[in-house]
């Protein structure tokens, strides 16, 4: 498994690796030093790197790279340094090891595919690439790259990577059309969404002590990455509209590149009493924070590329059995509507979000419980973990068969 991010960073790939080892597979992870999302290498890792060499019997190979730190230039260097280290040192660390499949986890950047292709060639193994972030579209959507020429270069890199993979998995059905623009053989494209994690189905978790349980307060909880794509300015616009309503409280659990901006903006707008910033916590603790929530918020910026995305938190939110508030367009919004799991407004519509919160808060408890129950049923039907793990295992076997067939043809 090739990924720039891995445990102790909180990513879904951790759960996938754990499942592979539970099913009896031997797993090796080629990754970097944990520094997401703060941009600083985790102190616990620096103090005891040997303590992070295995994860649920999976072997972890960590190559050196520059931490993300702050700024676009440093982020670019972070991406490049991982590619160089993984390509140069990965084969050395894994010399003499044979692999059936090379699996790529790509929430961003797409460059993670380069060392995977190198490993696939050296080990004569198929490469299966899981696309969770569309490049070059996302670079343009969040304003990181504006030059058409540079976006064109990135598009050619994406094409180079996809066309050297045996299978390309997209996290939403909408991704398939974009992937097919860069992948010559559409037969290798599959729909593989994120799954609903069982940890979020817990209903007997003690509430997080970091939050006071105020009577008569309707709590809206946002969990996850605090970045450009999540459109926190629009979220704060909605909070500002409801500033004079003492019955509405916002709980933000997470971290990311816009965390400092968010803290400053909450202070500037005088929202410190309404908006509680609770920082980053391990995924295992998230149910304790969810237990305070009357509604769970998911938001994405208004852009065509984000309308193709199903944010990974949607599956977790559905499984929690708590009503969802969505401020987003496209596939993510469609999932919430089809599940009848909450209320949705358009991306960037702060007034619509504020109105949806007031509407949900005005519902009686039984109606909100029904929305949550709808979401959990839908999650078990569409995003069941065991079903999706079985499907992925079948595709990995298919990739091996394709590779062997190609070998015989040669």
Concise overview:
This protein has 410 residues and is α/β, with parallel strands linked by helices. Helices cover 44% and strands 14% of the residues. The protein has a 6-stranded parallel sheet with strand order 10-9-8-11-12-13, with helices on both faces. A 4-stranded parallel sheet has the order 4-5-6-7. Strands 1-3-2 form a 3-stranded mixed sheet, with helices on both faces.
Topology:
Blueprint: H1 12-22, E1 28-31, H2 43-47, E2 54-55, E3 58-62, H3 72-93, E4 102-106, H4 113-123, E5 127-131, H5 137-141, H6 148-162, E6 167-170, H7 173-182, E7 189-191, E8 218-223, H8 232-241, E9 248-253, H9 259-268, E10 275-279, H10 286-290, E11 295-299, H11 312-320, E12 324-327, H12 330-339, E13 342-345, H13 350-362, H14 365-382, H15 385-409
Parallel strand pairs: 1-3, 4-5, 5-6, 6-7, 8-9, 8-11, 9-10, 11-12, 12-13
Antiparallel strand pairs: 2-3
Helix pairs in contact: 3-4, 8-13, 11-14
